[in-house]
Amino acid sequence: MPGESDHLSVSTTPTQAPPADASPPVPPQARRHAIGAATAASISGLMFGWDAMSLNVVKSALGFHTGAGPGMLGFAIAFGVLSAVLGAFLSGRLSDRVGRRTIMVVAAVLFIVSSVGTAFIGSSMAMFLFWRLFSGMAMGAAMTIAPAYISETSPAQMRGMLVSLRQFMLIIGLFVCGLLGEAMLGAAPDPGGDRPLSTSQLPMLGLSLEVWQWAFLSVAVGGVIYLVASLLIPESPRYLIAHGRIERAREVLARTVGEHAVDDRIGEISQSLKSGAKGGGFKSLLSRSGSRIQRIVWIGIGLAALQQLVGINAIFYYATTIFSTLGFDAQDALQKTLILTAVKIAAIVTGMLLIDRIGRRPLLMWGSIFMFAALVVTALTMLTAPQVDGAPDLANSPIRAVLALVALCLYVFAYAGTWGPIMWVLIGEMFPNRMRGAATSVAGGVEWMSNFAVTLTFPVLAVWSIGSTYSIYAAVALLSIFFVWKLVPETKGLELEQMDKFAD
Predict the structure, then answer these.
(1) How many angstroms separate the CA atoms of 323 and 343, rounded?
(2) How far is residue 282's CA from residue 89's CA, in Å, rounded to a whole number?
(3) Is the whole-model pTM more than 0.70?
(4) Which has the higher per-residue pLDDT, 431 or 315?
(5) C-alpha angle with apex 284: 283 to 289, nearest 5 degrees?
(6) CA-based angle 232:235:51, to the nearest 5?
(7) What is the dotted CATH code of the domain comprising 282-504?
(8) Which among 44, 164, 288, 503 is placed 20 to 30 Å from 134, CA to CA?
């Protein structure tokens, strides 16, 4: 604790960071440059929503054109998540060699090329999987490298808020791009027969393509936006210093964090990089048995896994059933989406305002507590409801339905304002400079694998018992409380060079 020791450790009582206002205020011009760089990197979140929209539109068309059954169709849609694991694993370490910004540029190009390619697959499932391999890799790389880049180009006083910006863009992207997909489907004429609406011909820009093709081509437009934004922002100053480009690093630091003590900052960064000159690769992460560097990596892996294993993706599978019991029918998708989007936006804005004021650990703790409470209520509601064909029937239990809806909104608020963005904030900032690329790769890969595991197992678990399934997620949320309390360090207000103390 401050006043007891200058040594920061990852212990059962993680050291609290010094107050964020210990550093000099950030000049207005530097704030603008830092926000601009963070916004450009956060377009990766927007691309996630854009890609999700295209998949939602293409599902029925893909089955119609290729003749794929439900199993193959489900695998094809999930294949992007698997390839995102590969992109996440490769991006961090490669960014140490070619630069953070270069990885974003490559990801943008992959988005463009793969989206155009996917739009013209004809009836070939093999070609769909081929192009989805590259778009998934682009997604994994872009989403994983953004927190590291934003952390390295942001002042410590506003780093948490700026890294959280990517999560805000993700939520907006899911909503706005979802509306774009609905608008394209709404503008399409009835194709007639047994053809899905997404296979309708929709003339635009002098071309007559099917709706699902336009959906994928629109993703390419997002890729172009991401590409231009990535080319306009500076490279990470820590990457520049690691590769001997000191003068350029000085310019970037002066622009994004202010000119105060730039030479001292360069010296600190250089020293932190030299302290691990022989390491930095994947082998260095687990090379010393029992070392703190091992421990901080495992904490990162635990954060990444818990963020998904609390069941965030599975929660929305049953949201439609809960809404339907409250009078929403299948045509009220927009109203349901608006309710949940409003909850998520309110949560993420609240989190962004608080993260650099009260810290990462308190927000994670409260998020875990509220998620646990909401999941327990949901599980009990499902387990005690009348069962019809092995599933809970809330249609004749309005009190249970309202309770389930309140619990759902509480869960979404708690997750979106805490674990959703803060896991990535910590992943981007708590690793030492010399190993940030490799460690971010591992944590990002684990996050995508956990995402896939929940998506793959939930349908099977839900058939067994939806109430028991939510009980499992509640147990994971309970575990996350103790995980944060015992292991997660506070990083609020610390410069990235001070993170070395967690691993030394």
Answers:
(1) 15
(2) 10
(3) yes
(4) 431
(5) 95
(6) 60
(7) 1.20.1250.20
(8) 164
